[in-house]
Design a protein that fits this description.
The complex is a heterodimer of chains A (721) and B (461). Chain A has 721 residues and is of the alpha/beta class. Chain A is built from 28 helices and 11 strands. Chain B is globular. Chain B: One of its GO terms (cellular component) is GPI-anchor transamidase complex.
Chain lengths: 721, 461
């Protein structure tokens, strides 16, 4: 790394012929200002160019063979779907209990000869697992049945055992429905799922078991799917079942429930499994207000902490939807950016530039139209935003926690669904699409591994892979170690020079002392940085404790949090503040930058998007920050620029402001209040998002340290830059 | 020269911190399953399995689960089966490791004080008392012991149900015994350390040098120079003050005391017989000594377990073709042996430092390294804080250690749990870690040599 080489620089005078890498490092360090300016600008430009550098997707795994077989889903199945739909709507309108639809599904599943069971779950409140993303799955085994036994949901699960399989792998279909109040579109998605399920129970080519989960989304889709997955992956052994006191209530309830359900056959409360999951498809039908010229399919793929399913899964869905079923495929995009004037301008510039390069050499494929660029950027921005938020965009997110690739498919029809003909055509398309996807996944010999896991989508058929999007990020954070090394070695040189003056036989003692304090003086600065980070870690646990107190509004909670954090910071300052002024601000800045770059690179592995957005805020702030008093010494023009830059960055870098801006850009500034921050923070920690940790463990301490440097009392000994 | 203020408070705080971690996090810390903390050799889970096998009258080594010493089974086995409700599974063992850590820290402190005394003595002989005053700011013993106790790596090892605290104690015991010239203790520590983890066998060189020549001192050439200087000045000035100097110098240049070494060898023999006897009693009906050697030392030397760890060997031997395997096994192990002689010649006057260098090198190249090994050598490094005050790259190494120790679990998570990374991700951190250790060893040795050069310059001036 640059820091490695950079630190080697200290005495060019003493050792004239040092190693090449050390000399290269010294060169970089000597021109650190130039290097950092160039790197930052290059990083920003490369980031803006990402939509241009996006490549077309391709199906990488040969075994998938999408669309190679004729679909078997016929109008017969559509009729079946319609019949099922009618039955549901009849039952649903009666609204006797929440179990009516489950019972109906159960009967039909048993009728087609598949296995059936009911999975009862209790909605669990959001818990705070700060390092959840980091721990293994088995850690989550202890479920807390803190809610009463009366509050529960009921998933119905059907399993088809594959005639050609060994029962070790499975494909999961999920259709969420609200058992309390079922609408036509949800009923339609159930009907579609059932018709596919009954078709699959008849086909001969299945090599993987099919699991159909009709998830009771009364308490949210995610909860239902997540608790089913938890039970699927954490078998309850007899030896430890005694420990869970709620087991009794669980058993009693489900027996009582099964009496209600009156489904004949073997015991339906036994949890059955079907091997490891190869892939999962969550699909639902949504009727949209605005009508389009074609039936459309929206794909949601973002899981927790910016994890994405394997790109091949999206590829086959896209391929089948566009080239076989003629659907219009959409993915989320940021609408506010679509109308942005500056983006259009950039797009036009790029278009012009593309034309120019094409003129120079026709082989250079750098042409992108302005509209394409704007659309790609808007899609990319939404992709980055949802990954950075770290909150899954649908119930498919629950699967990713168990390393299962899953996506949500949202089908929306062109016309109203009341028309029988339209509905049939729509069902036929949807059924064939899902059958085709299942058939492809069924062909898989291994887990999805061929294609990318780390990517951004700029269009349904265009992606930016990790190798490309890492370049802007790397360019952006490259100045950090270099500047850190430059500041450090500048300080070191100072120590060495004083030592050289003293280096006479007479005053050995003092030289030795100077040497000591000179070489290890960074420990003082490291202590300050460590203290601030420790404070931030304590801060990050406070919101959870505060949220235990009921009857407090978000604004009150936020104010209490802020007051507490400032108090604790003041206490820290009083205890440890005395030592902080001994070291110069250069050393403090150097250590702070080192900490920030470590944190950013760590975050770029956990959740790249957060790191990218964070780097765009932190890096300029860290690089530019200087004590205000020192800035006052500079010339008028320079002074004004420096002070304004520093103050702006200090305001923008404050995490709540940063969050506000991020949210404002995406969803509009209209509905932002003081309580919003608290709600946002709560959303982040309740979803175990690593972004929360990033904001509080890396971004906030970095900001506090920058403020500390800005308000630094004494002027540094040496003048840098 | 005074020790660090509030040493005992800080040490007690470190112990209290460990107990707090032990009591507050009953289940959340799954450190025992982390590859960085527990290796196949030191994992307490494996030890519990071995104990169970032995209780069932089977060889503890059957099934390639346990690879440690049979003595540890008798020693820790009882503790592993006791459970307390609401506490971590190996609660009693962890409590014992806290005590072991404390003893290690106390021994390091005692070693440091001995080193400081010897340093002062040799500086007085060399007429460098000004240097003594200047360098006496930090008491290396207190400092090193606190570094050992508060090192996050030590704390993680202590909490992480791995037996490396005991290995570390044995190594430190050997060094302490050699420094204070207690041959039985040195022999005990060396024999047990070797028995537990094999690699400390190379410590016999520094231990013998310590027993033979005494503690770390500036190169003996300096004393000779001083002697000749003093005698010439004596001849010129006839001053009464200097008449004492030659005698002191003679004391400072220790001749190799064969008596101590023979004493040590005798004790080594006694302890070796003792260990073998205990082991054979322990394994009387189940296996016997030959199986023990095969399953412990053989397991270490042939790198059978290729599960990922922070070293570099697992990746290499997972890739290498089978018919080259033996060749590369020899190459890798000889790598450590090659460095013994040159380093011993160059650093023979600083035997304690030599021991640190050996430990650092072996923990870098050993087949199943863990962070417990780095905890040990970082603690020992702090013993030489006065000599290494002007070490280069200190900041870089500090950042590197922090970065790697944070990055390594994340990469492991990415590979094993998320499935989005692959083995190369994790191996990259292992490689970076090996590089850091190399830089640390190279820089510390070169700054120690520079320190010696500076002393020579000062003496000759």
């Amino acid at each position: 790394m640059a820091a490695e080489a950079g630190d080697g620089k200290p005495q060019p005078g003493r050792r004239p012929r040092s190693r090449l890498i050390v000399r290269l490092g010294a060169l970089l360090v000597a021109y650190s200002v130039l290097v950092s300016v160039v790197c930052c600008i290059a990083g920003s430009v490369a980031f803006l160019l990402l939509p241009v550098l996006a490549k077309n997707t391709y199906v990488s795994e040969n075994a998938l063979m999408p669309g190679s077989a004729n679909p078997m889903f016929s109008s017969q199945d559509v009729v079946e779907a319609n019949r099922f739909l009618k039955e549901i709507l009849d039952r649903g309108s009666a609204k006797v209990t929440g179990t009516e639809i489950a019972k109906l599904i159960g009967q039909h599943v048993v009728d087609v000869g598949a296995e059936l069971y009911y999975h009862k779950f209790h909605p669990h409140g959001n818990q705070f697992h700060p390092l959840h993303f980091f721990s293994s799955i088995t850690n989550t085994m202890e479920m807390q049945y803190n809610s009463s036994c009366t509050l529960f949901g009921l998933n119905s699960v059907g399993i088809i055992r594959a005639p050609r399989g060994d029962g070790k792998e499975a494909i999961v279909l999920v259709t969420p429905y609200n058992s309390q109040n079922i609408g036509q579109s949800e009923a339609l998605s159930l009907g579609l799922a059932f018709s596919i399920f009954s078709l699959l129970s008849r086909v001969t080519w299945l090599a993987k078991d099919i699991v159909w989960l009709a998830a009771d989304s009364r308490y949210g889709e995610y909860t239902a799917v997540d608790s089913w997955l938890k039970d699927y992956h954490n078998p309850l052994f007899l030896s430890n079942s005694g420990k869970i006191g709620t087991g009794v209530c669980f058993e009693e309830n489900i027996l009582h429930l099964l009496d209600q359900l009156k489904v004949k056959g073997p015991r339906y409360n036994i949890f059955k499994r079907a091997g490891t999951m190869a892939a999962a498809l969550v699909f639902k039908v949504i009727e949209k207000k605005e009508k389009e010229e074609r039936d459309s399919l929206t794909i949601y793929a973002e899981a927790s902490n910016g994890q994405m399913p394997n790109l091949d899964l999206i590829n086959i869905v896209h391929y089948l939807a566009v080239h076989r079923q003629g659907l219009r495929v959409k993915i989320g995009s940021m609408h506010s950016l679509l109308k942005a004037a500056w983006l259009k301008f950039v797009g036009e510039m790029l278009q012009l530039f593309g034309k120019l390069t094409k003129h120079l050499n026709p082989k250079w494929k750098f042409d992108i139209t302005s509209a394409e660029y704007v659309e790609g950027t808007a899609t990319l921005a939404s992709s980055i935003y949802y990954q950075a938020l770290g909150v899954p965009t649908g119930s498919h997110g629950a699967f990713r926690d168990y390393q299962v690739d899953a996506i949500t498919l949202e089908l929306s029809p062109r016309f109203s669904l009341d028309n029988e003909n339209n509905r049939s055509a729509f069902l036929l398309r949807g059924g064939r699409l899902i059958e085709g996807v299942i058939r492809s996944v069924n062909n898989l010999l291994e887990k999805f591994h061929q294609s990318f896991f780390l990517y951004f989508l700029t269009a349904p058929h265009k992606f930016v892979s990790v190798g490309v999007y890492m370049i802007p990020f790397a360019l952006l954070i490259a100045p950090l170690p270099i500047v850190s090394a430059a500041l450090f070695s500048a300080n070191d040189n100072l120590g060495n020079s004083t030592e050289k003056v003293n280096q006479e036989p007479g005053c050995i003692g003092s030289s030795d002392m100077e040497l000591r304090s000179g070489s290890w003086k960074w420990l003082q600065a490291a202590k300050v940085v460590f203290m601030i980070h420790l404070w931030a870690i304590i801060m990050s646990f406070l919101p959870y404790m505060l949220s235990q107190f009921p009857l407090m509004t978000p604004i009150m909670l936020l104010l209490v949090w802020a007051a507490l954090s400032i108090c604790i910071l003041l206490i820290f300052y009083l205890i440890f503040g005395a030592c902080s002024t001994h070291c110069g601000w250069e050393l403090l800045k150097s250590v702070m930058i080192a900490a920030a770059s470590t944190g950013l690179s760590l975050m770029s592995i956990i959740n790249f998007s957060t790191a990218q957005i964070g780097a765009m805020l932190i890096v300029p702030m860290c690089l530019l920050v200087q004590p205000l008093r020192k800035q006052m010494q500079a010339g008028v023009c320079r002074k004004a620029v420096l002070v304004i830059c520093n103050l702006t960055l200090a305001v923008v870098g404050f995490p709540p402001v940063a969050l506000l801006i991020a949210k404002g850009v995406c969803e509009g500034f209209g509905k932002a209040g003081v309580g919003t921050f608290w709600e946002l923070a709560q959303l982040l920690w309740s979803w175990n998002s690593a972004t929360y940790l990033y904001l509080l463990w890396i971004h906030l301490p970095c900001w506090v340290l920058c403020l500390h440097i800005l308000l630094y009392p004494c002027i540094g000994r040496s003048s840098k830059a | 020269m005074a020790g660090i203020r509030g040493y005992w408070n800080l040490a007690a705080a470190a112990i209290a911190f460990r107990l707090l971690l032990l009591l507050c996090f009953p289940k959340d810390l799954h450190l025992g399953s982390r590859p960085e903390v527990a290796t196949p050799l030191t994992s307490l889970r494996r030890l519990a399995e071995g104990y169970w096998l032995k209780q069932a009258s089977m060889s503890p080594y059957s099934g390639s689960m346990y690879h440690g010493s049979p003595l540890l089974l008798s020693f820790l086995g009882q503790l592993t089966i006791r459970r307390v409700e609401g506490r971590p599974p190996h609660f009693y063992c962890s409590l014992m490791f806290v005590v072991v850590d404390f003893i290690t820290a106390v021994l390091i402190r005692a070693t440091g004080q001995k080193l400081l005394l010897s340093r002062h003595k040799s500086f007085q002989v060399l007429n460098l008392s000004k240097l003594v005053e200047a360098s006496g700011i930090v008491n290396p013993g207190d400092f090193a012991s606190l570094v050992y106790l508060w090192n996050p790596l030590t704390i993680v090892t202590c909490m992480g149900s791995s037996t490396s605290p005991i290995d570390n104690l044995m190594v430190v015991m050997a060094i302490y015994g050699a420094c204070s010239r207690i041959a039985p203790l040195a022999a005990f520590g060396w024999v047990f350390a070797t028995h537990l983890s094999l690699y400390p066998i190379i410590l016999i060189v520094p231990v013998i040098l310590l027993l033979g020549y005494g503690l770390d001192a500036p190169p003996s050439k300096l004393f000779l120079h001083k002697t000749s200087d003093a005698s010439s000045s004596c001849a010129l000035n006839q001053s009464p003050d200097n008449s004492e100097a030659p005698k002191l110098t003679d004391n400072a240049i220790h001749t190799f005391s064969w008596v101590q070494v023979l004493h040590f060898v005798l004790w080594v023999f006694i302890w070796l017989c003792f260990v073998l006897l205990l082991s054979s009693i322990s394994l009387k009906d189940v296996g016997g000594l030959s199986e023990m050697f095969r399953k412990t030392y053989g397991f270490i030397l042939t790198v059978e377990d290729l599960s990922p760890n922070i070293g570099v060997l697992w990746y290499f031997f997972a890739e290498v073709f089978d018919f080259f395997r033996n060749f590369f096994l020899i190459v890798f192990h000889v790598n450590i042996l090659f460095m013994i002689l040159p380093l011993a010649i160059r650093l023979k006057h600083r035997s304690c430092f030599l021991a640190f260098v050996y430990i650092a090198i072996s923990s870098m190249l050993k087949s199943y390294p863990s962070v417990g090994d780095s905890a040990l050598y970082l603690g020992l490094l702090a013993l030489f804080c006065n000599e290494l005050a002007d070490m280069h790259f200190s900041f870089f190494l500090f950042c590197g250690y922090i970065g790697v120790s944070l990055l390594s679990p994340v990469m492991h998570n990415l590979w094993i749990w998320r499935g989005t990374g692959n083995a190369n991700f994790y191996f990259a951190t292992g490689l970076a870690y090996a590089c850091l250790q190399t830089v640390l060893v190279v820089e510390s040795v070169s700054s120690m040599l520079k320190h010696d050069r500076m002393l020579r310059k000062l003496v000759k001036a």
